[in-house]
Design brief:
With 265 residues, this protein is α/β, with parallel strands linked by helices. The chain has helices spanning 19-30, 42-54, 69-83, 106-134, 159-178, 197-210, 216-223, 233-244; strands at residues 10-14, 34-39, 59-63, 88-91, 138-143, 184-191, 254-258. Strands 3-2-1-4-5-6-7 form a seven-stranded parallel beta sheet, with helices on both faces.
């Protein structure tokens, strides 16, 4: 595993209770960062903290709803109260839903946009203001999706999800430019077919719509990956560690595909 020295730095990872968020939190802790694990799932966040402590790291669990400005502001204040600073924010919290656009109701649209887009804005605002006050810059990494780059496809009804992730990509590009004068670097990751609960949900729902066997949708998707295997959360975590490191000190407002080759651009 490549090593990036993040010793003495403090990271916040939203949606850190499981899946990709947990992998990111563990990787940043492995690199020496102290980690605030933020999630509405407090039990899961506490489990991630326990995993970090088992490898000798220091972490705390925070109950945070990223759709609420008061929670986002408190998340930063509580992190600073615990560790004294904030250097890295990873906007990983996300939700998904499977439905053709003509069948997507307002509640589903609002839930996706609130978590996947508004949550990125609110948490970034809170963290960036603290980073500006500290005066030495920082890093913001947004975890989007391949659906933030391309339409998922006629047979993959994730249109509302894709719209929310396209918004996350656009926020990254604009925020990276606006915050560059403060030496706050903002970048985005677009993953592929990741072995998580969300892709299990996608498999179940599309299989139901197609009246296909459970598991067949995921199998079909994995077969399309050029590198020949399903993506693991740790594949995303490695890119986050790089973007948080000194090696990425001249990169901002960019979006990186970490997808095994399935995204065309």
């Amino acid at each position: 595993m490549p090593s990036y020295d993040l010793g003495g730095q403090v990271a916040i990872v939203t949606g850190g209770a499981r899946g990709i968020g947990r992998a990111i939190a563990l990787r940043l802790a492995h690199e020496g960062a102290n980690v605030a694990v933020a999630d509405v799932n407090t039990d899961g966040a506490a489990e991630t903290v326990h995993d970090i402590e088992r490898i000798g790291g220091d972490a705390c669990a925070l109950c945070v709803d990223v759709t609420r400005k008061t929670d986002a502001d408190r998340m930063v204040l509580d992190t600073v109260g615990r560790f004294g600073r904030v250097d890295i924010l990873v906007n990983n919290a996300g939700v998904g839903a499977v439905a053709p656009l003509l069948d997507t109701d307002e509640a589903t649209w609002d839930a996706l946009m609130n978590v996947n887009a508004k949550g990125v804005l609110l948490c970034s605002q809170a963290a960036a203001r603290r980073m500006i006050e500290q005066g030495w810059g920082g890093r913001i990494v947004n975890n989007a999706s391949g659906a933030g780059k391309i339409a998922p496809g006629k047979d993959i009804p994730l249109g509302a999800y894709a719209a929310s992730k396209h918004a996350a990509v656009a926020l990254t590009r604009q925020m990276g430019l606006e915050l560059s004068s403060y030496h706050i670097l903002v970048n985005c990751i677009c993953g592929g077919i990741v072995d998580t609960d969300m892709w299990n949900l996608i498999d179940r729902e599309i299989a139901r719509l197609e009246q296909a066997p459970a598991g067949s949708i995921k199998t079909r998707a994995v077969a399309s990956i050029p590198v020949g295997r399903i993506q693991q959360p740790e594949d995303i975590a490695g890119m986050v560690a790089f973007l948080a490191s000194a090696d990425a000190g001249y990169i901002t407002a960019q979006t990186f595909n970490v997808c095994g080759g399935i995204l065309p651009y």
